[in-house]
Structure formats: C-alpha cells, structure tokens
Amino acid sequence: xxxxxLRQVRQRNGLSLGQLAELTGLRRETIARFEQGKEDxxxxxxxxxxxxxxxxxxxxxxxxxxxxxxxxxxxSKREHLLPTG
Length: 85
What we know:
By secondary structure, the chain is an all-alpha fold. It has helices at residues 6-12, 17-24, 28-36, 43-53, 57-61, 66-79.
C-alpha cells in the first residue's frame, strides 16, 4: 500500500520527518521512503502513523479514486466506531 498522502498530512500537522520519526519510533529514512513510494509500510506502521497524525488510513493513502476510495474511507470511519477490548 503506497502512502501518497503521508507527506501532505505530516506537513499539515507541522511536523518534520525527524519529528515524526521520534513520535512514531520509525526511522526518518523509512518514513521518507514511504512518502516517496519507494517502500510499502507494514500494517502496524500505517496504523501507528495514522494514530500519531490523527488521520485516517484513507488520508495517508491519499489520491484515491473510484469506488475503492469511498469504501476505504467508510471502512476507516467504521474503525472508530468499533468497540475495543
């Protein structure tokens, strides 16, 4: 899964790559590769980034089109409604 919207969400939150790396525990270089589309993140990294950035997975994926995008946005919204534990 490419994180095409990660850079935009990170910048919208006013964070540098280094700051986001510190907050997430991921390496700065790893986050840069995610933003450049050179590396696909593991699911734990996607959810960690989304939580730290207070964004949905759909926001991080960015540039979505078609029904798949709407489905992903709706699924992401439903995640917040599911009980935990």
